[in-house]
Design a protein that fits this description.
Blueprint (H helix, E strand, L loop, with lengths): L3 E11 L5 E12 L4 E5 L6 H9 L6 E6 L2 E2 L10 E4 L11 H11 L4 H14 L15 H13 L5 E5 L7 H18 L2 E6 L2 H7 L2 E6 L2 E7 H6 L4 H6 L4 E11 L2 E6 L4 E5 L8 E6 L5 E2 L10 E11 L3 E9 L2 E8 L14 E5 L6 E4 L4
Parallel strand pairs: 3-8, 3-9, 6-7, 7-8
Antiparallel strand pairs: 1-2, 1-4, 4-5, 9-10, 11-12, 11-14, 12-13, 14-20, 15-19, 16-17, 16-19, 17-18
Bound molecules: adenosine-5'-diphosphate (ADP) and magnesium ion.
Length: 367
């Protein structure tokens, strides 16, 4: 029996314009106890809808939600052992931090000594001991978000639902909070379902990531699984940057495949799957591509092109290479001090090299 099962969830909205939007289209996810699960996808893909249905603020049109085998149908939001943290943390401005955090306990009828103890614990958990008597306006955005977290954690939910809670914070604060939130989840042992449209955030924080697009689940797996072996082109493009080349398998020698693209290029890849004749898409990550040394290169493992742009981003240079036929490949080149970058200056002719082991293959849509 699963912990929290999202079973074939369907939800459609009727827009004022008279159209129908499938916000959730047959989504099935087995959420594990104590995991940090992230729902990742672009704006409008259905993330908030799914959280609202889990929380009980919205009902599913079809499918079910089961907590430890029991359907949540008809269970109102306040009877579900869940709590939600929103992006706009909505603290009560006239109340102190301690009063904000203790509010839910107060409503639940928890007596003062017990309430104070739990509020103190929650403040300590989020690193805000000693801030009890401040008001929200006297805290930074990051601190306010921590209060919002403490306010939820103090109620000891089985599942904490977090809807883009870090997106209002600046980059440095967001990165700090990512680490804190992940550590917090581990220490409190509560299941977190975290929503973000930011793939880096998802990769950094999650035990598992569920990638959604247009209301449909595209892939679910550990961060490294989703990044290293994307299930389809959508995931390959949305999670990290990918160079995609589509073609057909023309030769197979043991695990070494030759793939011919429509414009006649022959590319090599190593894989256990696929047979001669199969349509495939090669996924090549920018960090797996290099500028080849003169005279270097195994058959099928180089691609010729011309440097279009070299974008210096700090430790690496993002090199955009025109590989012909209107296609641009992006590779990550290690930045070296002073001058060594002539090889990647715009206009330079280069050969991109890669190892056939580093290629991930996915079945081309429609074969
Ligand atoms: N109350 C509503 N009425 C009509 N359409 C809605 C409503 N809420 C959400 N939608 C639509 O459902 C889709 C999913 O929305 P949402 O779950 O908010 O996406 P996300 O949180 O991933 O950005 C979007 O196309 C959105 O416009
Ligand atoms: Mg949303």
């Amino acid at each position: 029996m699963g912990f929290l099962q999202i079973a074939s969830a369907h939800k459609a909205y009727h827009t004022p314009e008279g159209a129908q939007v499938r916000a959730l289209d047959d989504v099935t996810i087995d959420v594990r106890n104590n995991e940090f699960l992230t729902l990742l996808g672009p704006s409008g893909c259905g993330k908030t809808t799914l959280l609202k249905c889990i929380a009980g603020f919205e009902d599913l049109d079809g499918g079910d939600l089961l907590l430890e085998g029991r359907s949540l149908k008809g269970v109102p939001a306040h009877r579900r052992p869940f709590n939600t943290v929103f992006q706009n943390y909505a603290l009560f401005p006239h109340m102190t931090i301690a009063q904000n955090i203790g509010y839910g306990l107060d409503v639940a009828g928890v007596r003062k000594p017990e309430r104070d103890r739990r509020v103190g614990e929650a403040l300590e958990m989020v690193g805000l001991s000693g801030f009890d008597s401040r008001r929200p306006a006297q805290l930074s955005g990051g601190q306010q978000q921590r209060v919002a977290l403490a306010r939820s954690l103090v109620l000891k939910p089985r599942v904490l639902l977090l809807d883009e809670p870090l997106s209002a914070l600046d980059r440095k604060m967001r990165e700090t909070m990512q680490i804190e939130l992940k550590n917090l989840q581990h220490s409190v042992g509560i299941t977190f379902i975290f929503v973000t449209h930011d793939q880096e955030e998802a990769l950094a924080m999650s035990d598992r990531i569920a990638v959604l697009s247009n209301g449909r689940l595209q892939q679910i797996g550990r961060s490294t699984e989703v990044y290293d072996t994307p299930a389809n082109e959508f995931v390959a493009n949305f999670v990290g940057t990918s160079n995609l080349f589509t073609g057909r398998v023309t030769e197979r020698n043991d695990r070494l495949l030759t793939i011919e693209t429509a414009n006649g290029r022959r590319l090599a890849a190593r894989s256990d799957g696929f047979a001669v004749g199969d349509g495939v898409t090669l996924v090549l990550r920018p960090e797996h591509l290099r500028i080849a040394e003169p005279g270097e290169g195994g058959a099928g493992c180089t691609i010729e092109g011309t440097v279009k742009d070299a974008v210096f981003v700090g430790s690496i240079v993002h090199v955009h290479v025109d590989v012909g036929f209107g296609r641009t490949a992006i590779l990550h080149h290690r930045h070296e001090r002073a001058g060594a970058s002539a090889a990647v200056a715009p206009g330079a002719s280069v050969r991109i090299a890669y190892s056939p082991e580093s290629v991930h293959l996915i079945a081309a849509a429609g074969g």
